[in-house]
Structure formats: C-alpha cells, structure tokens
Amino acid sequence: MASSDPFDAILDRIKAGQQTEADLAALQDLMRQGDAQSLRELSKHINIGQVSGGELQIGDRTYNYRVEWSDEIKQALIEAIQTQLPALKRFVRCKPRTAIFTSLGVTAAVALIRFAGLLQHLELAAYDHLLQTRLQTDPNSQSWTDDRLVIIEVTDDDRAEQKLRHEDLRGTSLSNASLLRLLQILDQAKPLVIGLDLYRDDPLNPQESALAQRFQSQSNLFTVCKVDDQNLKVGEDRGDPPPGVPGDRIGFSDFIADADGVLRRQLLAFREKPSFQASSNCQAELAFNLRLATSYLQQKQQLSVQATFTPENHCTGISSSNGVTLPNLQFYTGGYQGDDSIAGCQMLLNYRTHPTNNPIAPTYSLTQMLRGQIPATALKDRIILIGSISGVSEDVWRTPFTTNTPGVYLQAQMISQILHIASGNGRYGIWVLPQWAELLWILAWSFVGSGLAWGLRSPQRLLIAIGSAALVLYISSIVLFLMNGWLPLLPAAIVLVGSGGGMWGLTLRRNLGGRNLQMEQPSGGKANES
C-alpha cells in the first residue's frame, strides 16, 4: 500500500466534508492496490470490513466494489467516515479522576511495601549515597574539625615501642604501664574530660595499685563497658568495666549496626530489662559518648543532660537543661520501617567529615604523648579520647564511606554531634518528616507522574518529562540533605515512574481498546479482516 500520509489526508478531507471526486478515486485506487491491507488500515478508523472477494461491508450493508463504486457506496463510505472518524482518530484522554485514582493506588501500594520494611535496605543505600554526595559537595568537609576534642590513638608503632620496653600488653594495644604514664601526663595538662575507649576488665596486680587508684579517684576519667541484650543484638563479646570505677563514670561503648553491617546511627541511652540487670556487669544506662559530652557541657556551659525512661524501661528521650531535646529515632523513622533494633534512645549519626581520611578532631599518637611532644595547651580544657587504631584492635566498623573505621574516630563524631545539638545548634542533627508528611511527599510525586502521563500524548515526550521530574527529585533530595533533611528519595522515585507508566498504560488501552470496540461493535454485521 502507498504511504499512509495521502490516505490520512483523504480521510481528513472527507471528515471535514471537503472531499472531491479525485479523493474518492484515489481512495478506490489505494484499496485496489492491496485489498486486505487497505481494508485493515481503514478498519482502524471506521466500522468497515471485507466479506469476500470485492464485497465491501459498511455498517450493516454489503456492497460490491470490485467493478465500480456506485454513488450508494460512495455515500455510505463518506457518512461512515464523517460520523465515526472524528471520535476515533483523535487521542482520547482518560478522565482526570482516573489519574487521581492511579496516583492513590500506586502510592498506597508503595506505602504498604515500605511499611513492611521491604524497601529499607534500598532506602538506606540511597541514604549512604546522599551522605557521600554531601561530603563531596560540601566545601568545608575537608577542613571541618571540632577543637573541643583530641584523639590519642594507639598505633602499631606504639605497640612496637611498648614491646621494646618489655611492657605486658596482655593481648591489648596499650599496657597498664603506658596507660598510667599517659594519665599522669594528661593530669598535668588539665583536660576537662578523659575517655578511655579501651576495655580494661583484667584484674590489676598489686604492682599496679597506682593505676587502680586513678581508676577510682580521678573524677574526669571515664571508661567503657559492654551491655548484653538481645533486642539490641549486642553482647556477643563481654567487656566489663575496670575494677573500682564508679558507675557514674562508666558508659556503654556499644554501637548498633544495620543489617548490612553499616553504622548509621548512635545509641545514646538504654536500660536493660530487669531479667538482664541482675546478671549483667555493665549497668550503665548512658552511652560512653553521651557520658563524655554531658560532663563537658556541665563543666563548660553549666548544662545538664538527662535521659528519661518509662516504667517498662523504654527510653522516651534525652533533653538538656536549656530546653533542647536530642532527636529520638522511632520505630518508623525515615527509611527505618519496623526495624526491631530501634530500642533505647538512638539518633542518626551525622558524619560531618570522612571518619577515617579526615578525623573530626586533632589526633596524636601514644608515643608523641609519652615523649612530651604535645604541648599542654593543645590538651587543656578538651575532651581527650584514648583508643586503638592498631591492627590487633577489633574495634573497627563499616560506615557509608569505609569498611574499617576505628571505633574511637566514631566516638569522636558522636560526641561532637551531641555537643552541637545540646548546645542549641540543631542544624547538626539529621531531621526527617513525620510519617504523614512523608506520605504526602510520596503522594505529591505520584501525582506528578500520573499528571504528566495524562497530559502528554507522545511516549517520547513522556519519557523525557518523567526523566526530568526524576532529576528534579534527585537534586531536591541532595539540596535538602545539605540542610540535613532526609526525605524519601527512593519511594518518591518509584511512585513517579509507577504512576506515570500506569497512567500511560491506561490511556493507551483506552485508545486502542476504543478502536477495537468500534470495529467489533455489531451494527448489523461484524468487521472482518482477510
């Protein structure tokens, strides 16, 4: 058959009542060139078909057109084209309410899937991407440090130095002899808080009475222990506090990693169930990082920080005396949907710098400290963190940036975040919308997808429009995350594409289905194709 352009032009003129004898002759010639193909093309628009040979069926009448076209055939064909073609040839949109119902249906389906926790892994991966993107785009991320903190790290070289002095490491990275000397040096430098992020649960022998005395009486020295609780999924390795340290100077060092092993949140307070409290040697209710931050704020800014618990030992929140409340991660918060490890008081860990390549605080080695190479002014009125980064240390964690970040670096990130938020600088905490607001955010993008599909006829334009909307969503999520706002990126992207595709499918079905219905609608005879 010839090109469909003259064929469509002839039909348009007939539809408008502007046909000529030449148009009808051309239409006859086109049909004679290939009866079956011509009839199939014409049957897409009007109720017409071929019965057999040269017989033409128009509506409930059958005509013989093999010899010639009579006036009766011409008139029947013209009337059929004029009455049926206008409604069938144009692009028919669904009703606006169809777009609304499509958006609501897709949003409800995605919300249920999300509520069941099936999107959590993917949402947390998107969260990691936002963190990484922010770190790459923030011009201050490489130079940003918290000068209220100092990290004293025990490296492999420090372990080798201790071995050369024949000190007993007892399977750790820091001997008791070197620890005592370090505490004596720090005592002279007068820091406000000293945090020992190392387990020291071995009994001290009589020759180490000076260290035991410091554990008991040095009021600014805080140590760690490890809780044992199945709800938190911790406690595989026990870590008791050093002997003789008062309970108000002990904090639990436990971190809560997600199912993929990545550390994205920090545990601030936790009270064990009564059945565990009787047997646990770690009775601390506050995290080590919160203990250190609280002591610093109390001495430096006269701020007190307190965690509150229900009679069932559920943490309800942490607030400071200036009226600031630390964020409290709920059972359904952001991408966390029904995660059973959301227990105690937790908040998202806002990584301000790369935790390994660019630690958040100045770092000095144990050897530098013991040799007196660090001036006291660099330590005075600071929070001093002592921890191991040596190869024998098992205190390494996966983060959104690296797979082997030492725990002491993460403690510094956590302490810095608490100090900023409790001091009233809330922009350092990551915020999320309430559940109902997140649902509205997702629904809005669903309406965008279905609206574009409702308004655009061309699939190519629709793809471009959906892609552009997805880009706007992505950029908006990055911009909001630069302001520490975590909005549902992945669910919004799913409903944007799902509603757009669903609405376009309904529209396409309506147009194609309408033509088929018109072709097969009985009006005395059914159109047939040969």
Range of helix content: 40-55%
Low-confidence region ranges = 514-530
The total of beta strands comes to 18
Specify the structural class.
alpha/beta
Instruction: Please give the domain count.
Output: 3
N- and C-termini, Cα separation: 15 Å
Q: Percent of residues in beta strands?
A: 5-15%
Largest sheet, in brief, is: 6 strands, parallel
Number of helices, where a helix is a run of at least 4 consecutive DSSP H or I residues: 16
Q: Given the C-alpha coordinates, what overall shape results?
A: rod-shaped
Give the spatial strand order of the biggest sheet: 7-6-5-16-4-15
Mean pLDDT score, rounded? Answer: 83
Gyration radius over CA: 37 Å
Features:
16 helices; 530 residues; transmembrane; six-stranded parallel β-sheet; transmembrane helix; three-stranded antiparallel β-sheet; alpha/beta; membrane; EAD10; 3 domains; rod-shaped; 18 strands; disordered C terminus; CHASE2; single chain
